[in-house]
C-alpha cells in the first residue's frame, strides 16, 4: 500500500488537497491522481523549453492571423462604404430621371385632356433636362 502511495505521488508531482470546513472542524481529503490532459503529454515529449518555444510560435502565428483578419475586415468595411456611396449616386440619378418622366407624363396628360396648345412640351423637356 505504501509503495502504491509513493508511486501515486510520483505521478502527481503536486498533491491536491481539499480542506472541507464544517462546524466541527476541518477534514483533508486526498483527491487522487489528476487526469493527464492531452496537451500536457506534448510538453513531456518535447521538454519544457521546446514546448514553450513551440507554444510561443503558435501564439505568434495566431496573433498574425488575428491582425490580418482585422486588416481584411477594415478593408472590407471601406470597400462596402465606397460601394454604398456609388449606389447612392446611382439611385439619386434614377430618382431624378423618374421625377422627370413623371413630370413629362403629367404634362402630356394635361395636354391631351385639355387639348390646349399652350403647353410647350419641348420647353418642359429642356427645363428638366
Q: Specify Rg, calculated over alpha carbons.
A: 40 Å
Placed side by side, the strands forming the largest sheet appear as 1-2
Distance between the termini: 102 Å
Low-confidence sequence ranges: none
Q: Main beta sheet, described?
A: 2 strands, antiparallel
Helix coverage percent: over 70%
Shape: rod-shaped
Can you walk through the features of this model?
With 129 residues, this protein is mostly helical. It has two domains: 34 residues, no CATH class; 93 residues. Helix content is 73%, strand content 9%. Strands 1-2 form a two-stranded antiparallel ribbon. Helix 2 crosses helix 3. The model has no long low-confidence stretch (mean pLDDT 73). Keywords: Coiled coil.
Could you name the key traits of this structure?
coiled coil
Can you summarize this structure?
Helices cover 73% and strands 9% of the residues.
Itemize the secondary structure elements and their pairings:
Layout: H1 2-11, E1 17-22, E2 25-30, H2 38-46, H3 48-114, H4 121-128
Antiparallel strand pairs: 1-2
Amino acid at each position: 500500500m505504501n509503495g502504491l502511495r509513493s508511486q501515486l505521488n510520483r505521478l502527481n508531482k503536486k498533491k491536491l488537497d481539499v480542506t472541507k470546513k464544517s462546524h466541527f472542524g476541518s477534514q483533508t481529503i486526498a483527491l487522487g491522481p489528476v487526469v493527464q490532459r492531452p496537451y500536457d503529454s506534448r510538453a513531456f515529449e518535447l521538454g519544457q523549453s521546446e514546448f514553450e518555444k513551440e507554444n510561443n510560435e503558435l501564439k505568434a502565428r495566431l496573433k498574425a492571423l488575428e491582425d490580418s483578419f482585422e486588416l481584411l475586415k477594415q478593408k472590407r468595411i471601406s470597400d462596402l462604404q465606397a460601394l454604398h456611396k456609388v449606389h447612392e449616386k446611382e439611385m439619386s440619378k434614377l430618382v431624378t430621371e423618374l421625377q422627370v418622366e413623371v413630370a413629362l407624363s403629367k404634362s402630356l396628360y394635361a395636354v391631351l385632356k385639355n387639348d390646349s396648345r399652350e403647353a410647350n412640351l419641348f420647353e418642359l423637356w429642356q427645363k428638366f433636362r
